[in-house]
Amino acid sequence: MINVTETKTDMDVINKIMSRNQIEFEEINRIVEEILANVKKNRDDALRDYTLKFDRVEIENFLVSQAEIDEAFNNIDQGLKEALLNAKKNIEKYHEKQLIQSYYLKEGKDIILGRLVNPIEKVGIYVPGGSAAYPSTVLMNAIPAKIAGVEEIIMITPPGKDGKIKDSILVAAAIAGVDKIFKVGGAQGIGALAFGTESIPKVSKIVGPGNIYVAMAKKRVSGYVGIDMIAGPSEILIIADEMANAKFIAADLISQAEHDEMAASILLTDSRNLAEKVVEELAKQVEKLERKEIINKSLNNYGAIIITSNLEESIEIANQIAPEHLEILTEDPFAVVEKIKNAGAIFLGEFSPEPVGDYFAGPNHTLPTSSTAKFSSPLGVDDFLKKTSLIYYSKEALKGIKESVIQIANDEGLTAHANSVKIRFEEEV
User: Fold this and answer.
1) Which residue ranges are tagged as binding site for Zn(2+)?
2) Does the pLDDT at position 10 exceed 60?
């Protein structure tokens, strides 16, 4: 079911997991480029053709009506609605702390430097549909944008075969402040947001997860618009010592494996006894779950229990892998977390399982995957803000530093730059 290995004898399993996203996607890229070109040229007509082809439904009007949203509010389980509202409060409370302001630095009376902070005016959010239609994704992407002050939030999501959107998705969008929702998905939806169509406005940035076609489409349109990240398959890494609960560990590994067949679930422990107990628990728990076929394939291909020499080696490997989700199930998780350099989100202690972060705690669940946590961060308010530098020099201030600017410009061979400063003082020569 799952690879059990030791770091001192075999590192191949780690290398396999770390390179699982390094796959050649030539055929996928060809299809994506064809779709994007068609949407750019034929706009709504192309969207209707692809929606019929891929989603097997005819859509005349892509815009979700207020009547459909009202119906979703009437249909949704009230307990679920309350849960979404409570999650919204937590997400807002956490992300409001991230909001930054413009600032100004005055150097005497003659120089003013500053940074202006403004929200992106129009943002597109992609929300997967079908079996992967997650209202939590709506909240995690729309709420930071709203806090940042984005003027218009456009959401796209694939319709079901009945031409409708899942009730919880519509309710989440409404409570998060999404302005318009369109029934379109896939690479064609990304093209619509990037280029604009008769129905769907062009946006300045696209955020949100999707399948490989969506990910490659986002990569292709990057430059026409901004994007948040190219998300790879989901992953969890657990650092555990002999004190950890094998039943909890198995459940957490499985919870990530059920996402898809390429999801990675890894346990690092210096306890062989714990490793053996986890293997036993995995076998017991998987059999009881609905998505056991996907779980088994994921665990077989990209699951691993790695027995390390000690806790320090576990920490070293975790930093090397830079996982999307990192759980620390040790006697003193707060001592371990001080040594973690690379991770998307960290969960401390046996009662902080990863799903709490996915749905409710407040920190964003849109996280860097495939070792990109070494250089990137979770989605946040900052992703929806632009910063503009501000410079003011009086004549006296410029006169005081003009020779320095001229010297640097001349050294770089940019004499017109130097002249731009010189010309302002010609009457004084």
Assistant:
1) 256, 259, 358, 417
2) no
